[in-house]
């Protein structure tokens, strides 16, 4: 019989993989369009590119961390995952539109009563975090697979080099919201034909005690993430001095960073499965990462001679040549991001 419910579970799941991957590509693309738009929005609201970048990256990564920890405990196992995914996609698009129109007036009102200088910037930054945290928490619930990384890189470059170059933040936001809505609609259609085992989650799960060696691994991973995000902020700042403080620079460095993380996580998972001692492999990876970050800093500093030509090209915007020079200057950051993943 051709009925989906009569097929074996493994075969039934496998035939929906291409559709699921397409959903994750769209989800990742929309998420990075939002991130590029929010960076430009925060520059207008906060007024400092360095603070804007720190607020954006901290909120984005912090929200994804909170969501990945919370949703597994909050969402009931009896709910169909695709329907939950669809609801989250709808909510992400709706909240993103609200952020676009509500955040600037709210910030202006708050700055009028909250003062200026460092204190005013700090309070406006906290206000931005409060607005951006809900959608980033929801974004974390989608599966962080390779397809999502691919969609994220495409969305990053598409937003920076096309949408915001030819249109405005509202157009980019509505397009990303339309992608969210399309993903949600497709997920609901897929949920109507895809089976779901609604067995209840076990009432209690006995957790193993955390050993010292496991704690060392967690600390290493945390410190690696800290240096990776710190390096991204520094690289963006350096490349802004070389290439100009524009959305193109942020789009390039973010795309390179995401590409490196995607490649590194894929290669790292293969090495961890095949290595006799994954902990030792992690240690050597961190050693090589030190050299890679130093190499990236040296390579970026030696690219200063191309700064004048790049700025001229970006000012008159010769797309092919300008993008090629930006990619060439940003290329040294790929090796550290692969290792940091």
What does this structure look like?
By secondary structure, the protein is mainly alpha-helical. The longest helix has 34 residues, at 81-114. The chain has 13 helices and no strands. Residues 1-12 and 315-322 have low confidence and may be disordered. The chain has helices at residues 9-14, 17-46, 49-74, 81-114, 117-139, 146-166, 169-193, 212-243, 247-274, 278-302, 307-316, 319-330, 334-340.
SSE order and pairing:
Elements: H1 9-14, H2 17-46, H3 49-74, H4 81-114, H5 117-139, H6 146-166, H7 169-193, H8 212-243, H9 247-274, H10 278-302, H11 307-316, H12 319-330, H13 334-340
Helix pairs in contact: 2-3, 2-4, 2-5, 2-6, 2-7, 3-5, 4-5, 4-7, 6-9, 8-9, 8-10, 9-13, 10-13
Shape: globular
Strand element count: 0
Task: Give the helices and strands as they follow along the chain.
Answer: HHHHHHHHHHHHH
Count structural domains. Answer: 2
Quaternary state of the chains: single chain
The helix content, as a percent range, equals over 70%
Structural class: mainly alpha
The rounded distance between the terminal residues' Cα atoms is 45 Å
| Uncertain residue segments | 1-12, 315-322
Which value, in Å, is the CA radius of gyration? 22 Å
Major β-sheet annotation: none
Number of helices: 13
Q: What portion of residues belong to β-strands?
A: under 5%
Average pLDDT, to the nearest integer?
76
